[in-house]
Amino acid sequence: MTGCKRFVGLCVLVVLSAPALAATETDYLAVFMEGKKIGHAVHTRTVAGGQVTTRDDVTITISRLGIPVTVQMTETSIETATGKPVRFETVQQLGAMTMKVVGVVNGNGTVEVTSTSLGGEQKSTMTWPAGAIMAEGLRLLSLQKGLKPGTEYTVDLFSPGVLQAVNAKVIIGERKPVDLLGRIVKLTETKTILNMPGAGQIASTTYVDDEMRALKSIVPLAGMQVEMVDCPQEFALGENDVLELIDRMFVKSPQSLEDVGSATAITYLLQPDKGVNLVIPSTHDQTAERRPDGRISLTIKPAQVTAGGALPYKGNDSRLLEAIKPTRFLQSDDQRIVELARQAVGDAKDAASAARRIESFVAKYIDNKGLSVGYASAAEVVESRQGDCSEFAVLTAALCRAAGIPAQVVVGVAYVREFGGLEGFGGHAWTRAYVGGDARGQGGQWVGLDAAFKSGNRGGYDAGHITLAVGNGEPGDFFNMATALGQFKIEKIDVQRAR
């Protein structure tokens, strides 16, 4: 199961939601979850040579079945004194794997992006989102708007961590006493509502002083709260508590499910928590219908395709062509991945057969199924041959793409009878591939591939998988799982089987 993957999203959320807006020196903050200190954040702002450099370092450590995993993220933005973006950089150390991304914003609105990891270096070009700002631009806007209660404004914040702009609505509240680890200070409450693409809204609360320095922030995550509190350096960088989160990654099942793989379809009745706008996508094999009472009827009916489909894909559907391109986490043009894809596919003549062979190949290729990896790219998995479900998923997707099969990484929850003494639906990642159809790929469909489950003799993808988000294996894809887990219950399950 995917353990701390949602904490990749957490680090991005922390950087987005809780910068110390006007710091002229280094600020230290302790990070808490469930009342336990799990890490720290360091914020610095430097003005030199007509440019402003803002840097946020976030480090958190959690435990999965007694195995500690540390996730570190450093995000740096360089802007002009007027808040115009110049350059950005992120370094994500996810367990044993490290990825660095550098972006240079050109005067014509394009961004030259260089991604470096164990898998090598990748270069790409993107368009800067119109009107988007980074840390200094946000600081200047906040100073302009002021702290008058009732003030509201919206802004597009560019997040280097997910390489996209996130729309945010800022609401200024009242000035009130706030407890900063025993130190009571009067601060102004501000709420920030982030509209995460495909994941709905995430509302955080920040308490700022008169200089707009954020001294306390609260970010919701999976039914829990992550708190960041300004404190002395010694405490922030001091020893952390141990927080075991495996049980937090599960949604209880109202009943035990026997032989899930033989089910032709399963219908789930989901009850969102009060006030939660639960986002459940409908996909090729998943249909979500919201009832008048707010509950969601969700039917999973896995596609059954054993053969067929052009290999490689030769159609012109832009969405499918996008699902073949290499990305910074699915390096399908890496020569090692290309060679592994050839080995896996062998003499298969159609996409469906090739995809199944790739699934089986990855199930055997990753021979160290440890929980110590935070989140690795496909090229890193090729080298390490270790990881949990997300590493199986990214490698499967990359091999499919290298073979010319459109493929994506899916995140959600999947039913397990036993994992760490727990039964239910745990956070999980798998792959889906587009197969079948005619010679040009028309009339095909997406089929689920789960090399992790196949590796564990589960059989692979089945109707016990609930999709929460689909993407290219980017850490930001885990936002929806991070926000949905802990926000709904499964009230009823109806299993359909062939007669």
Helix and strand arrangement:
Elements: H1 5-17, E1 27-33, E2 36-48, E3 51-64, E4 67-80, E5 85-94, E6 97-105, E7 110-117, E8 120-127, H2 135-145, E9 152-159, E10 164-180, E11 183-196, E12 200-208, E13 214-221, E14 224-230, H3 233-236, E15 250-251, E16 263-272, E17 286-290, E18 296-300, H4 318-322, H5 335-345, H6 351-365, H7 378-384, H8 389-402, E19 407-419, E20 422-435, E21 445-449, H9 451-455, E22 465-471, H10 479-484, E23 488-497
Antiparallel strand pairs: 1-2, 1-14, 2-3, 3-4, 4-5, 5-6, 6-7, 7-8, 9-10, 10-11, 11-12, 12-13, 13-14, 15-20, 16-18, 16-23, 17-18, 19-20, 19-22, 20-21
Helix pairs in contact: 5-8, 6-8, 7-8
What does this structure look like?
The protein is α+β, with helices and mostly antiparallel strands and 499 residues long. It folds into 2 domains: 5-244, no CATH class; 261-497, C8orf32 fold (Roll), CATH 3.10.620. Helix content is 18%, strand content 43%. The protein has 10 helices and 23 strands. The chain has helices at 5-17, 135-145, 233-236, 318-322, 335-345, 351-365, 378-384, 389-402, 451-455, 479-484, and strands spanning 27-33, 36-48, 51-64, 67-80, 85-94, 97-105, 110-117, 120-127, 152-159, 164-180, 183-196, 200-208, 214-221, 224-230, 250-251, 263-272, 286-290, 296-300, 407-419, 422-435, 445-449, 465-471, 488-497. A 14-stranded antiparallel sheet has the order 8-7-6-5-4-3-2-1-14-13-12-11-10-9. A hairpin with a 3-residue loop joins strand 11 and strand 12 (200-208). Helix 5 packs across helix 8 (389-402). The longest helix has 15 residues, at 351-365. The model is unreliable at 2-10 and 18-23 (pLDDT under 50).
